[in-house]
Amino acid sequence: MVSGIDIVLQGVLLGGLYGLFAAGLSLIFGVMRLVNLAHGDLIVLAAFVILALVNGLGLPLPLAVVVAAVAMFVVGYVLQYVVLNRTLGRDILPPLLLTFGLSIFIQNGLLEAFTADSRRLSAGDLETASIALGGGLAVGVVPLMTFATAVAVIVALNQVFYRTAMGRAFRAVSDDPVTAQLMGIDNRRLFALAMGIAMVVATIAALFLGVRANFDPSIGPARLIFAFEAVIIGGLGSLWGTLAGGIVLGVAQTVGASISPEWQLLAGHLAFLAVLLVRPRGFFPRAID
Amino acid sequence: MALLETRDLSAFYGDFQALFGISMAFEAGDTVAVIGANGAGKSTLLKAICGLVGARPDAVVFDGRPIGGLRASEIMQLGIAMTPEGRKLFPSLTVEENLLIGADHRKGSGYWRLETVYELFPGLEARRTAAATALSGGQQQMVAIGRALMSNPRLLLCDEISLGLAPVVIRDIYAAMPAIRAQGTTVVIVEQDIVQALAVANKVYCLQEGRVTLSGAPAELSREAIHEAYFGH
């Protein structure tokens, strides 16, 4: 019984990480209907940026994350403004092809710069710290922080979306990009801003990715799959749904892993397919679309 | 000098030419009616002015400045607001958010803000937290006009604001026109409903197949002249 609770609890916390992977993807799709196939690789890129700042410049990890977040915001803004904006239009194929190419470009660029070695971000004693919950249950501090951060990120994004003029503009552009221009909104800048914000979230995801486990230049696409599954399970356009989707995926994976380690990834994918069968639009699809 | 002039304005959708050398002049404070049958180019004219359809730079001159071909967002920030055909409210936004977004990128310095728009259209305040698309058609049109007013525009373009509405509702909406004009706003009304448009306008242009076929003050134009300009021979 205790081990059952433990498995589900670990899965929920793992879901926080997947929620973080997916939040940026969900944001981008929600605002500009862009499917960013390079999202996983951009998370890995952010992890290497943090690593370089820690190892190269000797910055403490928290400061390195802040600097990396600013740098990734700029990368996202410029990438969207200069490159991706040109591909947006009625045809959904050009942005798919472009982000697919970008994914390969980032992987190979990282391989050149950092080799294929597995790396990790060191969080010192925090990595192994845990909190006893009684009854033989314990949760790791890092997974707990991951989950709490995922919730905080989604609360923050929702505040931006529903409480600020910028969020109003995001929702308006998502509804009707043409009429949004009549409100004085410059879509190109707004999309760039959205991508910048998504890259800040990706940097936060990268921190927990790197502290939790090893990473190397090739793991981006697998993170993208998890992020996609979380977004689809949760329902397109809903940020809380994305976190819920991450949790479903995380729990399925830890339950699968408890049966046999081979089952971890497969169980996650099976859960995804099962949700698609029962609720093809996910759990919390946006009412309007 | 006119507030807005179109000089030999032509507009295209791909290979299809929708406007052929339109020249018009709107003075500050004018209420201009642009009438014409379906497909005469009325909406295209408004779109060329507000930047949704491309134009030669000097084909549209606003306050002495060539604005043809600028981005719609830039033109809006200069003080030209548009109430698009079909209202085009943002379904994800509440009534109040739809109004607020009109002022997010240009507040102007003028009379129009949330309170004064609610005064102009008294029914809206009670529905301020409702989804904009949950309102009746007439109220949605009021939100669309209010949204455009929120930026305190110098020029307000109204595209088919009576479309699909009951006559009594249309009368309510047109009842707001005097208050809008009282702020010195120049208003351009595009309508198929000629009677309504002529009643409020001090200047009228009639379009037919992308060309101006008649212009003048409504009082000076005979029914027959309008009929001919509207339908052709």
Task: Please characterize this protein's 3D structure.
The complex is a heterodimer of chains A (289) and B (233). Chain A is mainly alpha-helical and 289 residues long. Chain A has one domain: ABC transporter involved in vitamin B12 uptake, BtuC. Helix content of chain A is 75%, strand content 3%. Chain A has 11 helices and 2 strands, in the order ααααββααααααα. In chain A, strands 1-2 form a two-stranded antiparallel sheet. In chain A, α5 packs antiparallel against α8 (187-212). The longest helix of chain A has 31 residues, at 2-32. Chain A is globular, with a radius of gyration of 19 Å. Chain B has 233 residues and is an alpha/beta fold. Chain B has one domain: P-loop containing nucleotide triphosphate hydrolases (Rossmann fold, 3-Layer(aba) Sandwich). The longest helix of chain B has 13 residues, at 137-149. The mean pLDDT of chain B is 94. The A-B interface holds A 165, 168-169, 171-172, 174-176, 178-187, 286, 288 and B 50-52, 71-74, 76-77, 81-82, 84, 88, 90-93, 97, 100-102, 104-106, 147, 151.
Helical element count of chain B? 9
> What gyration radius of chain A follows from the Cα positions, in whole Å?
19 Å
Main sheet overview of chain B: 6 strands, mixed
The overall number of domains of chain A is 1
What's the quaternary structure here?
A: heterodimer
Keywords:
heterodimer; A: 289 residues; mainly alpha; ABC transporter involved in vitamin B12 uptake, BtuC; two-stranded antiparallel ribbon; 11 helices; 2 strands; B: alpha/beta; Rossmann fold; six-stranded mixed sheet; four-stranded antiparallel sheet; 10 strands; globular
Topology:
The complex is a heterodimer of chains A (289) and B (233).
Chain A: H1 2-32, H2 39-57, H3 61-87, H4 93-114, E1 130-134, E2 137-140, H5 141-163, H6 165-175, H7 177-182, H8 187-212, H9 220-234, H10 239-259, H11 263-278
Antiparallel strand pairs in A: 1-2
Helix pairs in contact in A: 1-5, 1-8, 1-9, 1-10, 2-3, 2-4, 2-8, 2-9, 3-8, 5-6, 5-8, 6-8, 9-10, 9-11, 10-11
Chain B: E1 4-13, E2 16-26, E3 31-36, H1 42-50, E4 60-62, E5 65-66, H2 72-78, E6 80-83, H3 95-101, H4 114-120, H5 137-149, E7 155-159, H6 167-174, H7 177-181, E8 186-191, H8 194-200, E9 203-208, E10 211-216, H9 223-231
Parallel strand pairs in B: 3-8, 3-9, 6-7, 7-8
Antiparallel strand pairs in B: 1-2, 1-4, 4-5, 9-10
Helix pairs in contact in B: 3-5
